[in-house]
Amino acid sequence: MSTEHVDGHVDVLIIGAGLSGIGAAAQLRAHLPGKSVAVLESREASGGTWDLFRYPGIRSDSDMFTFGYKWRPWPSDRSLAEGHMILDYLRTVAKEYAVDELIRYQHKVTAAAWDSASKTWSVTAETPEGETTLTAGFLWNCSGYYDYDQGHQPEFPGLADYEGTFVHPQHWPEDLDYAGKKVVVIGSGATAVTLVPAMALGDDGTTVEHITMLQRTPTYILSRPARDPLARALAGTLGRLPGIVPFKGARTKAGFDAVRWANIMTLVGSYQLSRRAPAAIKKLVRDNNLKQLTARPGGKGFTPEEAAAIVDEHFTPPYAPWDQRLCVVPDGDFFRAMREGRAGVVTDRIKTFTAKGIELESGETLEADIVVSATGLSIKLFGGIDFSVDGVPTPLNETMSYKALMLSGIPNFAYTIGYTNASWTLKADLVSDWVVRLLAHMDEKGYAEVVVNRDPTVGERPFMDLASGYIQRALDRMPKQGDRAPWRLKQNYLTDLRVLAGDLVDEAVSFR
Questions:
Q1: Average pLDDT for 261-290
Q2: CA–CA separation, 503 vs 412, rounded Å?
Q3: Do domains 10-149+378-511 and 159-219+277-373 have the same CATH topology?
Q4: Model confidence at 182: pLDDT above 70
Q5: What is the DSSP letter of 6?
Q6: pLDDT at 463 over 50
Q7: 213 - beta bridge partners?
Q8: Residue 206: pLDDT band by 50, 70, 90 thresholds?
Q9: Distance CA 256, CA 230 (A)
Q10: Are 403 and 503 in contact (CB under 8 A)?
Q11: DSSP label of 396
Q12: Which residues contact 354 (CB under 8 A, 6 or more apart)?
């Protein structure tokens, strides 16, 4: 399979060499070997999120049996895996499928222009040598939805007066020494609940004096085993890390499928239950939190009364489960840090920074040698690319999403954005399957162009149905979602699997 034609034109141009882009390119390699493919990556290395973030303890918050590709089994019983393990897995897959040969690094795509006459995309990218233009028959954006250059950073009063170290997890200093220091982590999302135990319970002995998670609003936090119980039971058929090797034999594949489907059904079932019977999930999470905080026999911790007071104040959000993303912690490490007195939680609002820490609206002051602003992501959908069709600019917020993988009025274009309520890769795999089928269908019928045409009778809905702040801040810049299929997917893997495996052609799709 050639990486490009003689004139530099490729059949499929993929943007992004992270989990989605590597998976997309691997599936094109496997199923459409006659197509030329190139992958543009803005950074100097592959791996996307898993190469970018370097803060202590970075790990998945989805189980690896669904976060790994369905066609390349995750070879470990480690369910919530560390970042370096995930990066190793991705780069191993890229090497196995020769995707690493297709990647052009330090190519930051800024614009993509479709020309109907030539049925071609002209894609402009910034490189260290200057601006360059590539052409392609089909454009597949796999760059995700957040800004890799800058995270979300609120304006904190008095920050200029603070004499300590202030960092954002997206730009973690390699030489940051936090041993024996007082640390405050602002935020209560996945990054915060990862940082707190990693800095408080460091396996290498590098631990803080004390760390405090400062939150405005509580988050649902649930403990689950770091190693999947079913995978451990089937360890003889699964293989292990380190040293990722391909699975061999039917027993291995059967074992992986069993664990994967057990996790899928747990994900789908718990989410559906949380939407239909939120009180039941609230009770499950509350009971889990109480169990985690209460002192073990002969160990440290809180009395049942103390644990109940802590849960009521700091772990009982005012919203229903999955209105925002629920945080999962492996083996209750976050709660263990609290039981051992190494970590604490404060629910309050910042009044101002001071020279030595943070003054809260309640009047309390938190002393801090280091403040970590785990305040979330900044949305930059599709890398902020400027799209145009036949010379006419096409703002994303004027388009409507079709099956959560194409946009109305933009020909020969697909995108991969994973689930927000389940494992990202469950959706990414579905998109890869669908796009491969689409391209094969176009080849079979001799089509050069495909476009979806917006139905004016379809009502508009938000592109992402999640109340998280980082999503809400960017909704006005995003495409719309429809109020019914095929302009709306249910964000349910079992339903989406059936829909996306169905007919490629419907009244919204036009081929030329």
A1: 93
A2: 18
A3: yes
A4: yes
A5: T
A6: yes
A7: 185, 345
A8: confident
A9: 10
A10: no
A11: G
A12: 158, 161, 162, 365
**Where residue 470 falls among pLDDT bands split at 50, 70, 90?**
low
427's CB contacts (< 8 A; 6+ apart) are: 404, 416, 417, 418, 419, 493, 496
Helix axes 250-276, 278-293, angle to 10 degrees: 110
131's tokens: 């601006």
Is residue 417 within 8 A of residue 404, CB to CB? The reply is yes
Domain boundaries, the chain: 10-149+378-511, 159-219+277-373
Q: How far is CA 422 from CA 268, 293, 376, in A?
A: 8, 26, 18
Q: Tens digits of per-residue pLDDT, 302-316? A: 999 999 999 999 999
d(CA 122, CA 454): 24
Which tops the pLDDT comparison, 438 or 475? 438
HEC string for 414-479: EECCCCCCCCHHHHHHHHHHHHHHHHHHHHHHCCCCEEECCCCCCCEEECCCCCCHHHHCCHHHCC
- The packing angle between helices 278-293 and 304-314, to 10°, is 130
462: Cα within 13 Å, side-chain hemisphere: 11
State the Cα–Cα distance between residues 265 and 257, nearest whole angstrom. Answer: 12
pTM, 2 dp: 0.92
In this structure, whether the domain defined by 10-149+378-511 belongs to CATH 3.30.360.10 is answered with no
Q: Residue length, the chain?
A: 512
Residue 334 phi/psi, 5° resolution? -60, -45
Q: Is CATH 2.40.37.20 the classification given to domain 159-219+277-373?
A: no
pLDDT for 472 equals 72
